[in-house]
Design a protein that fits this description.
Helix content: over 70%
Number of domains: 2
Mean pLDDT: 93
Number of helices: 30
Number of strands: 0
Low-confidence stretches: 203-212
Distance between the termini: 60 Å
Order of helices and strands: HHHHHHHHHHHHHHHHHHHHHHHHHHHHHH
């Protein structure tokens, strides 16, 4: 036990050395706004309304209520202090590292080999994205439940019983509620039954050939509840991603193109595992431009390694478990069902690389013994490799310190990256660096002229510069490319309303709401338009709908208060102004509206409104 504690301290120190710097990092303008900064439900902290929302929403094109609750807890404890949010993610990564070490020791009794797997997991550069990106809390959180499930399952395998089985099943269900990538865990449990748990016939527990079929079948039947949970989670996830528009149709990326990219991605993850350079937050999908030789090489490597592993598996079963772990756990995110427009993502390797790490940690000592190498050589090589990975990861973490640094680095290591030009331009525009922003928007459109998001963002910047007609032109081009962009309809409606083109603005607001009935901002903007034209009753209904959809929306509370006050319903208006200020204490317009309403109420001779 003393050695386990000593190794745990070393693992903690290694991980902290690489990642402690995230405590001074900022939010990233890529998913972090949707998950935290611009999400009023999350910013409000832990609330009953937030709890209901977390379990009922498909926001971010996913259903992961525990992830939402995790972000809410951070906001409850730390507000919008990004460093604290980052350190919370680091806590889960540290926990995962220690749990992985303890689980492997429990299953294999191989102390130092388990420690090497945990160290590789802790500090590998491919894992930086999962830890240093606040929006990827779902990665580290779900993996905690993955590791806890493995721990509970190993206890069940050691001494079968209903309690230990039920604990494992509950932990697995919780993990699925943090990230649906855990759908492959039942498959991994079957692999662990083969090695290291030795529950398959080849493990020596069953020697009667007639019993083999029944024994294997019972192991699969044992996983039925896990498989049912995985199937349910997969179904819900597909529905959420389709409704969120995250799944690319086969007309855009054909199935053959996806298959070729998937094969190459399997190979590239392994290459980056061995040689982790050129890591980026976003790798553009190559479409049909992948060279044939690369696809054929990927097929050759994958088939060759698989055949070798299956042949060597009798004497070296860890090769089978490790390799099939890698292939199987990557399958949901390898791109056959294309979610987003990336070719691959570092975060997708967080769990899958544990398989190759096990192959390395058990395979190299066996190879060294066969070749009769000096015993000191392997520890020296291990320490050298870990030191190199630590240095590379430390540098990679620094790239995540803010949005400009991260996006600029990504552009330096990738080509034809329209998405990153667009994202960098957005950040520069918010910083007031308009000319630089325009350059990157234009570059994004050179690379991908049919990118509606870049057209829309360029339109927004041009409008902010006073070049309204040019901006409107880009908004219209974005809608020509994709008429179903609710946000663009809403934003164009705002610009048209400011120009006095109310009829056209109305059409765009209504279209935005048709496309996204839960679009609270569009309801709020439509309410403003109706109120401006004296349709106060209809405006009140729209503001109320916006607040039903988004209960922590200070602008909607203020606007509802104004509409009620204009109907001389001061008693009803005042609590809405107060609520707006409660949610946003520096909301000066709401403060002025509240002061005016209180003064008018006092002058009317009515009793003050009750709090």
């Amino acid at each position: 036990m003393r050695r386990e504690f000593f190794i745990g301290v070393i693992l903690f120190a290694l991980t902290a050395t690489v990642f402690w710097q995230v405590g001074s990092h900022d939010f990233i303008a890529f998913d972090d706004p949707e998950y935290v900064i611009d999400n009023p439900m999350v910013r409000a902290g832990l609330t009953l309304q937030g709890l209901k929302w977390a379990f009922s929403t498909f926001a971010a094109a996913n259903w992961h209520p525990l992830t939402w609750l995790s972000h809410m807890l951070d906001c409850e404890l730390f507000g919008l202090n990004p460093g604290r949010h980052h350190l919370a993610s680091l806590f889960f990564h540290l926990l995962n590292t220690l749990l992985l070490f303890l689980v492997l020791v429990k299953m294999t009794t191989a102390l130092w080999r388990s420690a090497v797997v945990a160290a590789l997991f802790a500090i590998h550069p491919l894992h930086v994205e999962s830890v240093a990106w606040i929006a990827e809390r779902k990665d580290v959180l779900s993996t905690s439940f993955w590791m806890l499930t493995l721990w509970a399952y190993s206890r069940y395998a050691e001494k079968p019983g209903r309690t230990s089985y039920l604990v494992a099943l509950i932990l697995y269900a919780l993990g699925l509620m943090a990230k649906p990538m855990l759908v492959t865990l039942p498959f991994v449990l079957i692999l662990l039954d083969y090695w290291p748990l030795g529950r398959w016939p080849t493990g020596g527990l069953v020697h009667e050939p007639r019993q083999h079929g029944g024994r294997v079948a019972s192991l699969f039947r044992e996983k039925t509840p896990f498989i049912l949970l995985a199937a349910l989670s997969s179904t819900v996830t597909l529905i959420a991603q389709w409704q969120g528009g995250a799944v690319s149709p086969t007309e855009i990326i054909p199935l053959g193109v996806r298959l070729c990219n998937a094969l190459v991605a399997y190979l590239l993850y392994l290459v980056k595992m061995v040689w982790p350079v050129g890591l980026a937050v976003f790798y553009p999908h190559p479409g049909p431009s992948l060279p044939l030789w690369l696809v054929l090489l990927a097929i050759l490597v994958l088939v060759g390694v698989t055949l070798w592993v299956l042949r060597a598996g009798t004497g070296q079963p860890y090769l089978v478990t490790g390799w099939l772990w890698y292939l199987g756990t990557l399958l949901p995110v390898i791109g056959l069902i294309q979610v987003g427009d990336q070719a691959m993502a570092d975060r997708y390797s967080y769990i899958p690389l544990i398989g190759p790490f096990m192959m390395i940690s058990w395979g190299l000592p066996a190879l060294a013994a066969r070749w009769r190498l000096p015993r000191i050589l392997l520890p020296i090589l291990t320490a050298t490799a870990l030191s190199a990975l630590l240095c590379v990861s430390w540098v990679q973490v620094r790239h995540w310190r803010d949005s400009v640094t991260l996006f600029a680095h990504t552009l330096s290591v990738t080509t034809n990256n329209s998405r990153m030009h667009n994202n960098l331009a957005n950040v520069l525009a918010r910083q007031g660096k308009i000319e630089e922003a325009l350059t990157h928007y234009e570059e994004a459109l050179v690379i991908q002229p049919n990118a509606p998001q870049a057209q829309s963002n360029l339109g927004a910047v041009l409008v902010s510069m006073g070049r309204v007609e040019e901006g409107i032109g880009h908004y219209r081009e974005a809608l020509r490319l994709d008429p179903n962009l609710a946000a663009v309809h809403n934003n164009l409606g705002v610009v048209l309303a400011e120009q006095g083109k109310s009829e056209e603005a109305l059409r765009h607001y209504l279209k935005a709401i048709e496309l996204r009935p839960d679009y609270a901002e569009a309801h709020n903007n439509l309410g403003n338009l109706l109120a401006d034209h004296g349709k106060l009753a209809e405006a009140v209904a729209r503001f109320q709908e916006a607040l039903r959809l988004q209960p922590f929306y200070p602008d909607a509370y203020n606007n509802l208060g104004v509409a009620l006050a204009r109907q001389d319903r001061l008693r009803e208006a005042i609590p809405h102004f107060e609520r707006a200020l409660e949610l946003q204490p520096d909301f000066e317009q709401a403060r002025r509206n509240l002061a005016t309403a209180l003064q008018q109420e006092a002058q009317s001779g009515l009793p003050p409104a009750q709090p």
